[in-house]
Amino acid sequence: MTNPMGKRIFPAKEAKVPDSANRYFIVSINPAGALTLAGLAVDVAAFLLLLDVPALATGHSFAPALAGENRFFLGISLMYLGMLADAFDGFIARRFRWESEFGRYLDGFVDVFNYLVIPNLALWRLGFHGTSAGALIMLMIACGILRLSKFNMIGNITDKGEKKYLGLPVFWSQLLFVPLYLVFAYASAWFFSACALVWGVMSVAFIINRPFFKPKNPIVMAVILLGLSAIAAAFFLKSLHP
Predict the structure, then answer these.
(1) What is the DSSP letter of 2?
(2) What is the pTM of this model?
């Protein structure tokens, strides 16, 4: 069959119902996917808390909170709980053979929110804003999305017999938030420069063509993330009862 321009037309193929669909909905969520969505719910709560927090005063962040600043610590605590859920959904999927292409895409979309939106909002609340900061934030988000898109295509790589990441994984945005927050609290004059340097280098590392270490012990990761969440929660509780 050809069109009036003489070009051949191929008839459209009938779409098949994907394996991830069920009788009532277009997708079926296994327990690993449910954990991903639970982590997203926690991160949405963190996002809403951080969105409603007034700008924090430099050098004041460990003092009793004013004007609702205590919500900042609660938001950070939830941010790390969301990261914990993200760290374990893949582990559970592999452990119980619940891995699927749909699960990988779902995790990638959630990661955009977890690691490319929330840490930037937290830094914005700490004072990393303005034209140059906005440009670096947009660069970081763009490079992070490119890195996640590549990961959805190829997954992990094997380098010297070990599973590794290609490009720096985007979860480092939350881990690197910790030293940046300490700079904000104890050396506020250097905060903007530190953010610019770390975010700029990290953005390039997202898309650099080299392998990066992949954590292998989920218990160590759980202890680190629970510890960070607990510390932030402790400051939140302390701010309620100065």
Answers:
(1) B
(2) 0.85
